[in-house]
Amino acid sequence: MITKRDGSVAQDVPPGLSYAGVCKRYGQFTALDGISLDVGPREFVTLLGPSGSGKSTLLGLAVGSIEADAGHIAIRGVDVRRLKPHDRNIGMVFQRYSLFPNKTVEENIAYPLQIRKIPKPEVAARVAAIVQTMGLGAQAARYPAEISGGQAQRVAVARALVFNPDLLLMDEPLGALDKRLRADLQQEIRRLQHEFGIPTLYVTHDQDEAMYLSDRIALFNHGRIVALGTPRELYENPASAWEASFLGDANLFAAEDIRISAGECSAVLTGLGVAVRTQAPRTQHEHMQVMIRPEYVHIGDNVRDDMTRFKARVIDVIYLGARQRVTLELPGAIRLIAELRPWETPGEPGAEVLCGWRDHHSRVVEA
Ligand SMILES: Nc1ncnc2c1ncn2[C@@H]1O[C@H](COP(=O)(O)OP(=O)(O)OP(=O)(O)O)[C@@H](O)[C@H]1O
C-alpha cells in the first residue's frame, strides 16, 4: 500500500504502475522518448530490447533513482514526485544479488520488514513462510558468501516479496545464472507472481524468458516502445522485420507489387515471381518484406497442393534435439530456413526437395 504525502493511504486505487509521455535525456542523448505504458493489477510486463535501449532507465524512474525530464509516472494512481523513494513500496531484484554480506539469509529477508517497523513475532512468521515457499530452509542461517548464485537470487526474490510490495521491479535478475538455473528460477518467478499477484515490470534481453514469463511484452528500441502486446500477438503479428527477428527466427523475402485491401494483402516475392496472399500488415510502409517463420515451412510429403511451393536444394541440416534446423536454397540462390520435428526426414544435403508454406502463415512487414 502507498502512503500519500498527507499521510493518507491510497487503497482505493488498485496496485499498478503507469508511465505517460515519459522522456529522459542525458545531454544531447535521448534515452527515453515519450514512453507510455501501464502495468495493471496482477500483471507481468516485460521490457525486452537490445542493450542500451533504455530499459533500466525506465525502471530507475519508477524507483526514484533517476528523474524524468517530461511526462508523468504514477504508482497506484499517485504521482511519484509526491512519493519519497522509500514510500514507493517497491520490491526490487537486480542482476547482481546486492545482498548484505554481513547478514544471514534470514536476516537479509527480514530487513525490509524491520525497517518498516513490523513487530518482531510477525517478522519471524513472515520470514519463515517465505523461506519455506522459496525452498531456502537449509540455507537460512548461512551468509551470502556461503550460498550459490541461484540461491542468492532466490534470497533476493524473497526479500523483494516479503513485505508485500505494491510493485515488483526486476532488472535482468537471472542474467548471471547458467541456462538450467535460469529455467528453474523462471518457473519459480512465474509461480510466485501468480500467487502474490503483484504488478511486475521485468527487464531482460532474453526473448525466451520474456515469452515464458510475461502477460505482455513491450519491445524496446532506441528509447521507444516499438511494439506492445501478448507474446502471441507480438510473435505472430510483427509489424517490422526488426520485430520479427528480435522475437524469434524469421525468413524475410524482398517483395514487390504489394496490394492491400479489405484486410487482405497480396505481394510478389522478388526474384521468385510467386504471389502470396495473407492478412494486411499492421502498418504500411514504403518498403515491405514477406516474412515466414521457420516452423511454418514444410518439406517433402508435408507440402500440400494449396501451399506456396518451391523446388529447393537442401544445404544443411542441424539436429538440435527437440527440432531440426534445415537450410534450403530456392531458385535465385535465395536461402530459406525450415524447422522440422526430430522425426521428420528433410533429406540429405544436396538433395532436391519440395518445400512450401500456407500463405496465411506468412506476414507482410516493414523492411
Ligand atoms: N548517467 C548516464 N549518463 C549518460 N548516459 C546514460 C546514463 N545512464 C544511461 N545512459 C545511456 O542511456 C541509454 C539507456 O541506458 P539503459 O541502461 O536504460 O539501457 P538498457 O536498455 O537497460 O541496457 P542494458 O540491457 O545494457 O542494461 C544507454 O545508451 C546509456 O549509455
UniProtKB/TrEMBL annotation:
Keywords: ATP-binding, Nucleotide-binding, Transport. One of its GO terms (biological process) is quaternary ammonium group transport. GO terms for cellular component: ATP-binding cassette (ABC) transporter complex. InterPro entries: AAA+_ATPase, ABC_SmlMolc_Importer, ABC_transporter-like_ATP-bd, ABC_transporter-like_CS, Mo/tungstate-bd_C_term_dom, P-loop_NTPase, Transp-assoc_OB_typ2. One of its GO terms (molecular function) is ATP hydrolysis activity. Pfam families: ABC_tran, TOBE_2. Residues 17-247 form the ABC transporter domain. This is ABC transporter ATP-binding protein. It comes from Acetobacter vaccinii.
